[in-house]
Amino acid sequence: MKKAFQTVLVISMLTVFLSAETKIVKHKVKSGETLYSIAHKYQTTIKKLRNLNGLKEKSLLKVGKIVKVEIGTKKKAHIVKKKKSSRFLRTALKKHAIPFSTKKRYAKSYGGVLFKSIGFDFGFSSKKSKKIIALAKQKLGKKYVWGATGERGTFDCSGLTKYVFSKNGINLPRTSLNQSKFGKYVSRAELKKGDLIFFDTSKERKGFVNHVGIYLGNGKFIHASSAKKKVVISRLNKFYSSRYKGARRPS
Predict the structure, then answer these.
(1) pTM of the predicted model as reported, rounded to 2 decimal places
(2) Active site residue 78
(3) Which runs of E-coded beta strand occur in 96-239?
């Protein structure tokens, strides 16, 4: 009974609430843009875009068309600290509260919102990302074969990522397009080692994802390259930088 009462006091110590608003903006369709690329740009979904603009599944976007986009304003996490009222309460906090100042970081989210202000982080651990990268590097030089996921040591781009992540307990979708919808969206400025990065490498620049690699840090990534016919490490140079479509952090 005493422990239960202590737990209730600890929970009442921190009251976390979210404030979020949405607004509608107008976007003028540019050449090469699709519903998918627009949804990625504004961090929304294709379904929401279709519903908001009355578009059918097979509707085509014309250059210059104005589409409405619903976006969320910045979400803030507020922490309200109540006054410590007794020695008993301080003792309960000491026994049960998580020490935010320790070196180990804790992942915690409420409604998908990240609480960085109190030291939480999101995604797989640095230890797991190192294992993912180490395994991927073991495949350097392996032959590129379209549709291959490790059979006879051969891979295509999404086959390599699916193989490496599955060996580390994360089951990715099969294709690069579907992998680009899996996990937490990560901005380019927030890239970390082990993140999946996506590209449109088509000559026509059709606007949708058709290639994937694993970010290594320092502007480098490892991928199964159809142009090089093998698994290689490349830089986010002018070619790949201009065709960059986004990143995800699977977990």
Answers:
(1) 0.53
(2) no
(3) 109-110, 113-114, 184-186, 196-199, 211-217, 220-225, 230-235
